[in-house]
Amino acid sequence: xxxxxxxxxxxxxxxxxxxxxxxxxxxxxxxxxxxxxxxxxxxxxxxxxxxxxxxxxxxxxxxxxxxxxxxxxxxxxxxxxxxxxxxxxxxxxxxxxxxxxxxxxxxxxxxxxxxxxxxxxxxxxxxxxxxxxxxxxxxxxxxxxxxxxxxxxxxxxxxxxxxxxxxxxxxxxxxxxxxxxxxxxxxxxxxxxxxxxxxxxxxxxxxxxxxxxxxxxxxxxxxxxxxxxxxxxxxxxxxxxxxxxxxxxxxxxxxxxxxxxxxxxxxxxxxxxxxxxxxxxxxxxxxxxxxxxxxxxxxxxxxxxxxxxxxxxxxxxxxxxxxxxxxxxxxxxxxxxxxxxxxxxxxxxxxxxxxxxxxxxxxxxxxxxxxxxxxxxxxxxxxxxxxxxxxxxxxxxxxxxxxxxxxxxxxxxxxxxxxxxxxxxxxxxxxxxxxxxxxxxxxxxxxxxxxxxxxxxxxxxxxxxxxxxxxxxxxxxxxxxxxxxxxxxxxxxxxxxxxxxxxxxxxxxxxxxxxxxxxxxxxxxxxxxxxxxxxxxxxxxxxxxxxxxxxxxxxxxxxxxxxxxxxxxxxxxxxxx
Length: 577
Ligand code: ARG
Fold this sequence. Notes:
There is one protein chain. This protein is mainly beta. The chain has 3 domains: 11-299, Beta Barrel (Thrombin, subunit H), CATH 2.40.10; 318-427, Jelly Rolls (Sandwich); 433-576, Spermadhesin, CUB domain (Jelly Rolls, Sandwich). It has helices spanning 3-26, 205-214, 290-308, 435-438, and strands at 57-58, 67-72, 75-84, 87-90, 104-108, 121-130, 145-149, 176-181, 196-201, 224-227, 244-248, 254-262, 285-289, 318-322, 325-330, 343-349, 355-364, 375-380, 384-389, 398-400, 404-410, 419-427, 440-443, 447-450, 463-469, 474-484, 495-499, 507-511, 520-521, 526-532, 541-550. Helices cover 10% and strands 33% of the residues. Strand 27 (495-499) and strand 28 form a beta hairpin. Arginine (ARG) binds next to strand 12. It is found in: Cytoplasmic vesicle, Secretory vesicle.
């Protein structure tokens, strides 16, 4: 189906559900809150400490909805934490491979690695930002990276973001936090199929740096944070890296305090380190302290948002554009993307009596069959919706038979695009009868329409569209004055087809040949007329008048016209008939 036609279908649909669809479009969907487990089981207690990733326990499905598995092709290799629908936090050492984008997938809603859970979602990755100060040599400073997904996770009971700490929020030494992952169950031990977690106390920084000195890993003013028990027994282990260390903040929300980075062995404990050979020594779990890299994280995520943000004024206030011609770019630079949750309105106003021609040059609005997520809506006379557009092909030019057009751009809370660019100009209404051939003509007045060059032969491969809007309580009468088009049995070569507005499915009449077809009456106050020709044979074409008939006492929408001319009768017209 040609693009223009496809888009046409969309907006005829739009008219039908605008009454309730409109309010849905305008309301802003909010991100769910962070840090909540949909089925938080039992309140936290010290009893949890008794359950033993090393020394931990298997979790219940969905109990860490922010936990993701980074996969090399199908295989888990590191953990990560969802912080927004598009962003995952992980460890830099997990994503050092130069070719990682070729194979990296991120799975959310994962529980048992050997099964596909109902809510499981796997997305490829758009980009990875490693902290520029990441140093792969231990103590592995700045072991943190941001993974931007290609697409967004759909949040639900088993997929949800963890909170990022507030700038002034700290989790003091002694605070018991939880780390989780699909890492080994003991040093050099087995990899589990299901997600495990373990509770660990945060160590104070001085203590942490003292322990790491016994491993000849001096740290100062670094991004490290230690958690664990001096005599070991509980820890993260190989395969847990990149995953979260989560602490519950005051009101209970699970907050990302650290990212699993490394350890000397797993769960060894460190109390007798100095009495041991170097390679027998142990360490706490070493995590990247989120507080130390928080501003970097916000900076990166916000910079990405800013990149998307418009420099064009966009507000719920009406930006008015006057004059005989002009242009509208949204956002101002095609290098920028529009933001989420936008509602922008512009009114184009040309001198009275003139009509407006819209020409789109670039168009990139989140595609959807019904343009239900992001869309550009075009309204004209009496605030009638005359078009609803999305996707990445510019709509064909639109000629609006009125001197003002209102454009409304809406975006939801996900995905984004580069917006649109268009020019508009005032055109004289005299040029109108064949206007539907160079553009989609939207007409609000009775008048005449005709094929291009009429009465000279029309072009091959013509695609002419007219949409007629009559005032309420009116129906539209199309009366042919002359008619000369290529003839064949089912009018599949060249034809004039008249549709009622909804979805272009309801054909009212289709005509071809050389006899003047009988008049056609619309079902409602909208009518769509399409003239098309194939690649051979052209004739003089057609000319028809459009008139409006008032339906006294009836709402035009309810009015059901019983055609005076039974359908089949004027489907085909031939010279002989
Ligand atoms: N760096 C390792 C990984 O890639 C392990 C991280 C945690 N080790 C530990 N003992 N706390 O999974």
